[in-house]
Amino acid sequence: MNGLFDLGGVDGLGPINASKQEPAFHAEWEKVVLTLFPALFRAGWFGLDSFRHGIETMDPVVYLTSPYYEHWLHTFETHGQRNGELDMDELDRRTAHFLANPDAPLPEHASNKELVDFIDAASAGGVPPQRPTDNPIRFAVGDKVRLSHDAPHGHTRLARYVRGKVGTVSVHRGSFVYPDAAGNGLGDDPQHVYTILFDSAELWGEQAEPNTTTTFDVWDPYIEHVEQAVGANA
Prior knowledge:
Helices cover 38% and strands 15% of the residues. It is an alpha+beta fold. The chain has two domains: 28-125, Nitrile hydratase, beta subunit (Cyclin A, domain 1); 144-233, SH3 type barrels (Roll), CATH 2.30.30.
C-alpha cells in the first residue's frame, strides 16, 4: 500500500538497535493477541495478505507510536467488524469493564482439539501459499526486465524502492497467491514469482556500496521485458 507502511529504503528513521535479550512479549495481553491469529485465520476472517492490509488501514501516527501486537489487534477488529463477527459497541463495553476491573477473570473457553491440531500442523509446516496456474511462464533466467512504475491503490507487495528499476531474472520460483488480489478481497489469482537481481547502484544511485547487488521477489504482473518498456515509452 502506498504510504507510511512502505518504508524500504527510507532515510531518517534511525538505526534498529535490537537487544540480544529482547523478550518475546512485553505484556501479558500480547500473548492473547498472538493466539488469536491462528484461530481467526482458520475461521476465515482473513488471509495473510488481507491481514497485512488491515494493518495498513491504521492511522499513520498510531502505527508509528503503538506496539507491534497492537497492529495485529487493529486488523483483527477491522476484519471482525467488516465480516459482521464483532459488535464494536459490545467490544467497547467489555473493554471498559476489564479496564475498570483489571483483576476480573477472563471468560473461560473449552479447548478446541481441531484448532489445536491446526496450530500444531501450521507451526510445523506453515500454510503454503503455492497455487497452480495456467498462466504461461513469461520470463526466463537471464532476461533483462523492468518493474512497473504503477502506484496501485490498496495492498501491494511492489515496494516503492524497486518501482521502475531494471534488473535480471535470476530464478523462477513457481506460482503463488497474488497479494494484490488476495489482500484486496479479490481471491487468490495465482501468479508466477521470479527473483530479480539488481545492481545496487540501480536502486540507490551513486551512494550505493560498490560491487554489491540486491535481490527482490516479484509477481509476474509487476514485470515487463525491457524491450517492451522502451517500446511503450517511445
